[in-house]
Amino acid sequence: MKRDRLLSLAPFVGLALVILLIPLPLTVKPVTHVVTMTADQFAFDPPVLRVNYGDRVRLTLQATDVVHGFYLDGYGIETRVEPGISQQIEFVADQIGKYRFRCSVSCGTLHPFMIGELVVNPNLTFARAVGLTAVILAGTLFYLRRFPPREPREHTTA
Ligand SMILES: [Cu+2]
User: Do the beta carbons of residue 89 and residue 70 sit within 8 Å?
Assistant: First the structure.
């Protein structure tokens, strides 16, 4: 009897395990990315920054040839970098998605193509927590409907 009841929950336990064990990158805590980025004609290095939602980004910008700018779409961050004088930018990646950063100081012929990208991935720990909660809730409801805690006496038959 009791064993049948437990077995009926097997699909929910299975689903919960799948959600927990899907081999995707797992971020337990937000981290701080300390990055030194150089700007020279006509590129940023590194050209792409990948972080998780909630992470902190501490950027040190250096211009190696002429004056450049750094403007980050979506975040509204802008600064000007002169050669020899590094600039610090710090922000929390609190918007999920892809955001371009571009040079905001006209620095030469290919200036319009001086573009990089910030990629902010959703934090999967949060997604897992939401998924698990939903499965546990569904399992509990299913169990209670199938095996109600008390049956009214008038319906019991011997
Ligand atoms: Cu430029």
Answer: yes
